[in-house]
Specification:
single chain, 377 residues, alpha+beta, Phage tail proteins - horseshoe like beta roll fold, Phage tail protein beta-alpha-beta fold, 4 domains, 14-stranded mixed β-sheet, 3-stranded mixed β-sheet
């Protein structure tokens, strides 16, 4: 199916000030809970129209598809052809969450009243307040980003607590989101000309997104396996020498496959009551990093459209060599060149098994995470 993409430049207020009509190629990389990146290339008789503070808005078939901030430009001029060749680069609108830190007292900006910003409640509510108080609608006037609308909590999640001090917003909220399998997405609202941040859990799209060469839904695949960094975690809490609490976590399946690989982490900022949860979370990241899968979709024939039927952070099913794998979509790359559209979803860490195994593990993790603290110095 042919798709019509259009590229626009927005100013700092969100107003569209230019339409780019000579884009030769575009590469948009969106990542789970990460700003990602975009690159536009052109060769025209006019200079590149991007200036400081600009952003982009991309539409697909007349609907908002992507938006981001402009960060970098390279331009060359050829006197013989009298043409400008330019490359503009930037990041997605989650980049704004890297541009503010979490003040101990975001209401006043004072550093003498509170040492940490402390908050507790459901995951969605806490993350929304962190954003709104440091960047969004409830931020101090000098810190408020006018393009940001109020953060929308689609899924609330279970209880968390935080104690934050000058971490960037994205650094502060990423562990919270990861602990419960949640996403934060930036979406451009055409009506209000503002960015809407949405907090939601990963959807079960294993019946919609089934990657399989047998279904002609995959043009190419890449499957990587490597030894994990660790599969037995030893985590030391507050204290010195023998006067310290310790927590241990092991991945028995990984140990049986690769042998025991011990990993020590000093976690002096973590309370003793949270130490085991922290060890379990660290183990998941270490022992599961050893399997990766990526696939290039046949977007011309595939009926489940990106951002319509599925999205980043959703759970999908993948069949590789006759085995079924289930995991989240961690990255999606949209490449437009020579009139062709290629959508490349990347599934990060994947495990062989059934859907309920994955969600049972997430359920157990959510039950364990009743208090998650991120304390910076």
């Amino acid at each position: 199916m042919f798709s019509e993409f259009n590229f626009y430049i927005r100013d700092v207020s969100g107003k569209i000030i230019n339409r780019l009509i000579n884009v030769e190629s575009a590469d948009i990389i969106e990542r789970l809970n990460d700003p990602g990146s975009w690159t536009l290339k052109s060769r025209t008789k006019e200079q590149c129209p991007f200036t400081e503070g600009n952003g982009i808005i991309v539409t697909k078939n007349g609907e908002a598809y992507y938006s981001g901030v402009f960060t970098e430009l390279r331009e060359e001029y050829d006197a013989y052809s009298r043409l400008y060749t330019w490359t503009a680069k930037g990041a997605g609108d989650l980049d704004y969450l890297t541009r503010r830190v979490c003040y101990p007292d975001p209401a006043t900006g004072s550093t003498t009243t509170d040492a940490y910003y402390e908050d507790s409640g459901s995951l969605g509510e806490v993350v929304a307040r962190i954003i709104d108080k440091n960047l969004g609608v409830d931020a101090m006037l000098v810190r408020k980003e006018p393009l940001i609308a109020q953060t929308v909590v689609v899924d609330a999640g279970t209880s968390v607590s935080v104690a934050l001090r000058f971490e960037t917003i994205l650094t502060a909220i990423t562990p919270l989101l990861d602990s419960q399998g949640y996403n934060i997405r930036a979406e451009w609202d055409e009506d209000t000309k503002k960015i809407v941040y949405k907090i939601l859990s990963g959807a079960d799209n294993t019946s919609v997104m089934v990657f399989s060469t047998a279904y002609n839904s995959i043009l190419s695949t890449e499957y990587d396996v490597k030894v994990p960094e660790g599969n037995y975690v030893i985590m030391g809490g507050k204290g010195e020498d023998t006067d310290r609490p310790f927590a241990y976590a092991s991945d028995d399946t990984s140990i049986s496959n690769w042998g025991r690989i011990e990993y020590y982490q000093d976690a002096r900022s973590v309370e003793e009551t949270d130490l085991q949860t922290e060890a379990n979370t660290t183990l998941i990241g270490l022992s599961e990093e050893n399997v990766g899968f990526s696939a290039v979709l046949n977007s011309a024939d595939y009926q489940a459209q990106y951002k319509k039927s599925w999205n980043i952070g959703d759970y999908v099913a993948v069949f590789v060599h006759g085995k079924k794998f289930i995991q989240r979509v961690m990255q999606v790359e949209t490449n437009l060149a020579y009139g062709e559209e290629t959508i490349t979803p990347t599934v990060g860490t994947i495990r062989q098994g059934q859907l309920m195994t994955i969600f049972d593990r997430l359920k157990r993790l959510r039950a364990d995470v009743t208090q998650l603290q991120g304390i910076g110095n």
